[in-house]
Specification:
By secondary structure, this protein is α/β, with parallel strands linked by helices. 38% of the residues lie in helices and 21% in strands. The chain has a 10-stranded mixed β-sheet with strand order 1-2-12-11-10-9-7-8-6-5, with helices on both faces. A two-stranded antiparallel sheet has the order 3-4.
Amino acid sequence: MSTDDLPQARTLRWLAALGLVFGLASAAAAQGTNGPIPPFKDDLFSRQTVLESRDDGAFEVIDYQEQRDINGRDEEPERRVKSAYVDTAVSHRQQVNETLSLGGMRLDVTRVGPLENAAFTVIFIHGRGGDRRLGANDFSFGGNFNRLKNLTVTSGGTYYAPSVPGFDPNGAADVAALIRFVFENSKGRPVILACASMGNFICQSVSRDKEAVRYLKGLVVMGGPPDPGFLTTPAAKLRIPVFFSHGSADKVYKAEEQIAVYQKMISKAYPTRFRLFRTGGHGTPVRMSDWREILNFMLTQAAR
């Protein structure tokens, strides 16, 4: 047995992680912000109109208008956002494409931020037909990935966008290996796994992996298929926070089915949030989800 597997070693790593998260929170409080992640272009991304709120704000219906939120935001609709929404310095200075060797497996990833000692790590899993380029594109989806990069790196974190070879057990094993890799490289600091569309099958598999969930501190489900059995998983037993975002007019995965999962969770006082974009379609959550809100929720939960 490695000394890293001893209970006292795991405890020390976790205490170090908590100390770093609390340090982020203290710095944010000193700056007058409402969470450990300070603002970045909040006037463009975070000022969303809440049409309905319940469960003490855990569930919100957000105003979404295609004419405003796509045509008014993009220089070339659905292809290139207006320049005001992005700051590409982080991509030029800290973004690399690399192939990781993970226990005999090889995984292509885009990494933005340090390889080691990250304050926290975000891993984004694409949907069907995608690869690492989707999560690394600064200009698609209204610049939301560029904002995620900036929010993460300016707070000392690291962002990974892997190319998942499939949404089957092999793909899930690759992602589980990546989760452990970044957990160890960051000395046990929080790892957040975000899955979009069909990529949520990876999140579902990881949530059932007793080993992988030991290294996780948050799950983000963006327009993904529902998991009615989530509350029985090892992830749920560890009360790993879950943040849902979904379009009310999603024709691929019905919003009502995902809301039903959320309602089961909130009835158990589970740490969860749900953001429903009224009239939004299948791709709306990737474009419109407020990453600063998501990261602040996850890291605040991790510090408790």
